[in-house]
Amino acid sequence: MKNYPRPQFVRSQWLDLNGEWDFSFDDVKAGVAERYMDDFPAAQKINVPFTYETGASGIGDEKFHPQIWYRRKVTLTPEAEGKQTILHFEGVDYKAACWVNGSFAGEHEGAYSRFSFDITSLLRQGAENEIVLKVEDSDSCLQPRGKQRWAGRNHDSFYVQTTGIWKSVWLEHVHETRLDMVKMTPDIDRQMIRFDFRFNGTTNKKDLRLETEITFKGEMVRKLSLSADRAWLTVETGMMSGINGPWLQNLWSPGNPNLFDVEFVLYEGEREIDRVGSYFGMRKISVRDGQILLNNIPLYQRLILDQGYWTESHLTPPSEEALIQDIEAIAEMGYNGLRKHMKIEDARFLYWCDVKGMLVWSEMAAAYEYNDEAVERFTKEWLEVVRQQYNHPCIITWVPFNESWGIQNIIHDVTQQNFTESIYHLTKSIDPNRPVITNDGWEHTVSDILTLHDYVERGEDLYERYKDKDSVTGSSGTYNEWKFAFAHGYSYKGQPIIISEFGGIAFRSEHGWGYGNQVDNEEAFLERFSSITGAIKAIPFISGYCYTQITDVQHEVNGLLTEDRKPKVALEKIRAVNLG
Q: Is the pTM for the entire model greater than 0.90?
């Protein structure tokens, strides 16, 4: 369904609340005391889901404001009669509190995970309803903030902050008894898939039945009928006989992104009370004998770093077409995947990566200081993200930490080392099937892949530095003249090795920066790009690479494309280097 915010859990009755909202700054934080939820001071309008810092919002004020307010008036359609109404927020940065018709509906902390409120009891059917949202943000480095600046100006690789609603807002009308969640785990070795269902409102109801229908390109694969008489239900199912083995013939991969459609229908007696559409991919990602395997076949990863910024809308995609354009440009340049850097991307983006066969590393936004508060905030939100993104076949790697950000003393601090180990094992407790990179770039503790960052300019220098595997993986010295591959007390255990940041070549500019010396023309760019990419590909024990980066981002001008997506170099020339 086009523009549906949650494409892996689709229902028919929903209302898009993106668009014009009333908006007010509240720098002195007077809104609660002055009861903005009852008497909103509609100072201006804002175009949701774009934040006030962006041009797309209609405001374009880049100054930091610690508290802001939104209001939207809604009249429910007749379809809402007799149903429960759920208010969904796909992403609000950073702490949100919501009122409906002046009554408190709920609150949520965390910029990157989605959340919802059941607002049924607060609504007036057939009349106008008022939704008010207060958002608090801060420049604290204890909250996960990714690449958002905190000093009031852009600096290094940090950009204009994101405050408020930055992903879709929508209403959904549902039956009180319904399917709340389904976790889908494919197993290609056993030729089956496991469904873990969670229901709402099923307690003490004995006449509930869940019908599950799996199809592939319109052809029936499997149909299940289950009693849904408890809140949690788990079922494993193999293929239907007579379909010529659709599981193994139609595995998901970059070259063949096959997806199975699945529909879940909940009945009370003979009455249908819930219908949810979804999909899954039959694929396996694993690590064995120093190699990364996709569907039990060695996978060489050609990734590109993707920070997901746009000129007029910053972290918010300007349109669904813009998401598709980026994915198609990445594929056209010969990359088979991307590392989504310091951002939890829109679910529509992951949907299109699923559809088009684009591999994704999902990476959490970092905090930049460490104490108990930072640990609590990070852990809560990261686990929400892992659960919410679990079903996407495109995601093949979890990356909770990058370059020791927020764990700046991990090289020798046992407490911070323990924190990363706990996040590794917590992630594995939810998802034991994907690799986890605990501290991308250097100073690894426990990690399924050894990833290294290096912006050396010349291919011959890079080759000399990495050709000896023992010197790269040894814990006695630095691998690139200034960083250790492992934190103290940890050592190489035979993991696959990937150069997960390199390049960052910028054309000459007076208004931005890249890594190393800037180049003057396409010829100089291609010579350097070919040199360093070729050097990595020539080292047999390296399992892949991630080039920095797909687009310019504000003052960082080392993209293969400009921030408005104009190629700096012909895409086919980049492709020739990657695939040569």
A: yes
Count of C-beta atoms within a 10 Å radius of residue 285: 17
**Which is more confidently placed, 71 or 231?**
71
Cα end-to-end span (Å), the chain = 38
State the average pLDDT for the chain. 93
Q: CB-based burial of residue 315 (10 Å sphere; 0-12 exposed, 13-18 middle, 19+ buried)?
A: buried
Q: Which of 76, 66, 84, 61 is nearest to 131 (CA)?
A: 76
Question: Which residues, including other chains, have CB under 8 Å from residue 231's CB and lie 6 or more apart?
Answer: 198, 199, 200, 202, 203
Cβ(71)–Cβ(130) under 8 Å? yes
Using alpha carbons, list the distances in angstroms from residue 393 to 223, 254, 389, 433, 555: 22, 10, 9, 11, 34
Both tokens of residue 367? Answer: 């905090």
What pLDDT band is residue 234 in, cutting at 50, 70 and 90? confident
Q: What is the DSSP string of 471-521?
A: HHH-SSS-SSSS--SB-TT----S--EEEEEEE---B--SS-B-SSS-BSS
Single-letter amino acid code for the residue at 215: T
Is the peptide bond prior to 49 cis by the omega test (within 30 degrees of 0)?
Answer: yes
Helix axes 320-332, 571-579, angle to 10 degrees: 50
The token pair that represents 540 in the structure block: 């047999």
Are the beta carbons of 177 and 273 closer than 8 angstroms? yes
Burial class (CB in 10 A: 0-12, 13-18, 19+), 185: middle
Could you tell me the domains of the chain?
14-174 (2.60.120.260), 178-280 (2.60.40.10), 286-579 (3.20.20.80)
